[in-house]
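Students often ask what a holo structure prediction actually looks like on paper. The answer is less mysterious than it sounds. You provide the chain, you provide the ligand, and the output is a string of discrete structure tokens encoding the 3D arrangement of the protein together with 2-(butylsulfanyl)adenosine.
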Amino acid sequence: MVEPKDMPLDAATAEHRRLTAFLQEQNRAYYQADAPNVSDAEYDANLLQLRLIEKTFPQLISRESPSQIVGSAPSRGFGKVQHTVPMLSLDNAFNSEDLREFEGRVRRFLGLAPQEDVAFFAEPKIDGLSASLRYENGVFVQGATRGDGKEGEDITQNLRTLQDLPLTLDGSRSSIPDLFEVRGEVYMSIADFQQLNQKQAEAGNKVFANPRNAAAGSLRQLDVKITASRKLRLFAYAWGDVSEVGGKTQAEVLDQFSNWGFSVNPLSRVCSNMSEAIDAYRKIEELRSSLDYDIDGVVFKVNRLDWQSRLGFVSRSPRWAIAHKFPAEQATTQVEDIEVQVGRTGALTPVARLAPVNVGGVVVSNATLHNEEEIQRKDIRIGDTVVVQRAGDVIPQVVEVLLDKRPVDTEAYNLPTVCPVCGSHAVRETNPLTGKEDVVRRCTGGLVCSAQAVERLKHFVSRTAFDIDGLGAKQIELFYNKGLVKSPVDIFTLEKRDQENPLQKIKNFEGFGDKAVRNLFGAIDQRREIDLDKFIYALGIRHIGQGNARLLAKNYLSLDALLDVFSGDQPDPGKVYVDLLNIDGIGAAVADAVKQFFSEEKNRELLLNLAAQISIHTFDVPDEDSPVSGKTVVFTGSLELMSRAEAKAQAENLGAKVSGSISAKTDYLVAGAKAGSKLKKAEALGVTTMSEQEWLDMIGKS
Ligand code: IVH
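The corresponding structure tokens follow.
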């Protein structure tokens, strides 16, 4: 690379423009989409190059230059908050020499005598996102993101959901100033991040690249409920606009923060001079991999506040602080194979099997490749040499492929289009709203795929589906592990097989016995008859809840009809699909899922086998002449003469629409015991209300 000082102005201008565009794009990806597409190291290197050019050619510096802006402007959707005291960023040191130079600059600036020590406060640099919290007379009144440092987003409501954010300050040990803006880092613990990602993956939602992005994505949610459901935490470490600081040193102010009720990082400490500070860096680095949160370096702050204010700021960072970043934990290795795992919900996840390599003290031999799009974007192939990175205890990631090391005979990698576990088709759904393909490829053989079987079986027997007494999640796990129940059909042949098998008798299993086994078989027999809508719901087809199952039952009337329609022998399959879409209430995602399910050969086979064991009632067409046909009814309170499910089914069979909430369109409210707000609202709206008995009388079922 040409050094900026050796560049002619026009080359420097062009390079400056290129770097500016690149950094702006990355800022957007990082701060607004929470989806960085380059490593921090690559970002830092580009920013450094831009700075070097600006140092040689100061005429290229503009207010818009990425060197002058912290992060990027706020994204839309939240109110804006002006930071009266700007939220700044920190200069970086990469080694002890940089730290010594920092100390030298501080000493020179303050004009200190050689024998005078500078004490530094060392704090872990938390890898999260900073927030400013405004307290007026000890009450949390406003919280904001950093944004571009001058203007951030109002995320008060989101911040209120953080457990370790005191809504009022505890003034019992440190007095509370009229105004105090506490600043700190919002982060997610590694354990919470992993749990969140697992949930996200299972639901087919975006997985986050690291805890920092998960924290950012969780904090900046317009729907505060989402923020509340994600476990975010906060470490307080700085302040903005204040009426009174309350201390003479960084350490004292942080003590005051803990007195007020904030979490202050327990590894932070005062170092009497730079040698101690360097020592503190090493100690924190050693602890890094054992921490339950990501840190990416150590921040050193001049401890004395009178010195901090004399030192002041340069452009976007304080002269009194510096961050010593940890070297990225990266290593180079080879992709030996790409394997595909199938999750409990059928999501196919590619995993790279790597030649074992030591990354920052941990041997890594697998890396998640997330999904097909990730593989394509990075063009990762079997045989490639790749850079892997480990952040904290998080699953290692492939950062990039070293293309110059690629062997000649590699091929682009595509995920299999059939499930590696069961052989059913694996598909990517199209989102009907955006027309975009889902990033997750899923196995369509839910019930026949052993990777998904247990979950599906649990659903199959659950209360709202087959509802088999004595056969719950626990028993399904047991029977599955014993090899007795691998598919729903096996439930209905369990008794016969138990009689025929002299070696393994269910009555000998723990928690069973003669009576329990007899009861279980009896309960299974009782469910050999089932309504079509319940049956469809029990299959656990993607997007098919009770409502959609009912719509399908109502429109196709029998399992035979469904099997026939999707048999593949239809003269006009296009029409079959359009008919399905034309059902009022069925959208494209549902239609796709239904089509896929009933067309899949393995599922068809299973359905035929099931139909041989049980009898599925054809759908009872609702009674058009009933007194409640076409009416909207709401059930509320606790019903005593019938279950909620029964009441709903009965009403629907009579052609009524059952709704969960009262509006002016509601015709009847049926109020059971302890009916509350719905009853009040119905009365206020003039909706006809009645007791359970009155309802039964009206529909002639008493
Ligand atoms: S002090 C004026 N202390 O690092 C000084 N920042 O690169 C303001 N950070 O925006 C920052 N841990 O998001 C400070 N112990 C710590 C920190 C910390 C993490 C983040 C913060 C800041 C960025 C600066």
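The radius of gyration is 32 Å.
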